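In line with agreed milestones, the collection of sequences with tokenised folds has grown. One record among many is set out beneath this paragraph:
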Amino acid sequence: MKVYSKQLVVLLTFGMIFAMIGCGIPAADSASPSSSASSVPFPSSSPALSPTIAPSMDCASPSKGGSGRHFIHPGALNNKADLDFVRGKIAAGQNPWASAFNELKTLAKPNKSTTAPLAENAQKSDARRAYANALAWAYTGDVKYAENAIGILNVWGKTFSGYPTADGQNLLQGGWIGALLGPAAEIMRCYPGWNPADMSRVQTMFRDKFYPVLNTMSSWNGNVDLTQIDAMMSIAVFNEDEAEFTLGLQRIKARFPAYFYLKSDGDVPRIAGDGSDINNFWSNPVQWVDGLTQETCRDNGHHAQYGMASALHAAEVAWNQGVDVYADHTDRFVATMELMAVQLHSGKMQGTCINNVTTTDLFDTWEIGYHHFHDRMGISLPNTHQLITTQVRRRAMNDWNIFYETLTHAGSQ
């Protein structure tokens, strides 16, 4: 009887161990992201990862860039505090975040392609899906979104052949796509299932295939250069590239005063592409007023919104890395946002341009600037607030590198 009891104990012991292994119960919780990570911080993707686990979004890296800068992760367009804040709002079913997230989820699909596309619109679809999935994972912890996101990024890392030339439309295309893939990759740095070798390939892809079309400054209208800078800043953070980050800051210093007018600057700074004719380059404004942009009168607010969006993105990435670009340009940004907001809300250009009727296009790109200057800094922007609350959150479009900013950056208003 004692022999049978010992055998039974042994069988039960092995049975319990087998059940624990079969249920994926590890000795330590391998599904929880590490609180510290280098540029290749995590092991390979594993089926033992829980299908839903609230991501800590704490993937700070002890490593430094080539010149000693300590990069903060996640810290491209989305920082940890913002991601956590929005996750809580979605979980509570609060708007505008919950409704915006429901719309975003329609884009959070897997990409079944095995090669990175070359056509502009196909690249746009890939990049939007990558960013949508990355945000969806950050907000829900659902691993299917994480796997969708890294699936797209890995295909680009392995197969993207680059842009055939570094001029013209390719400079803009690289900016558009890089400004979506960069923030997506930076969020996914926090995913414990991203194979370090795959992550490294994506970093190399950015460096070899995107830098040539981002670091060659476009001399077209300023929104193109600003879009390139937008992409440069986010990619530099993901790549922990001190030189690229510094180059982005240098481009900001040159372009912001040459795109956003302030009377206190004196003469408008010269910049490549202006043809030595500032009035013509700025589409012949009727009035030079604070907040006018180089493209305000080009098409009465359409491209100016893109330029403002990219500039604010770049400033936000810098802020997330401890560099306050906003402070040097507070008057410039506040004047631009307030003037453009009253123009778009009223439908009139307020006498700044020959054609006094504004564009009917409205983009979801106001929340980042409003969040910083109003929520963080306590500056009143009544025109911007009115436009956001009455129109932007109701009908604004998301296109190219303007991507669900009401979801990602709306503060507590």
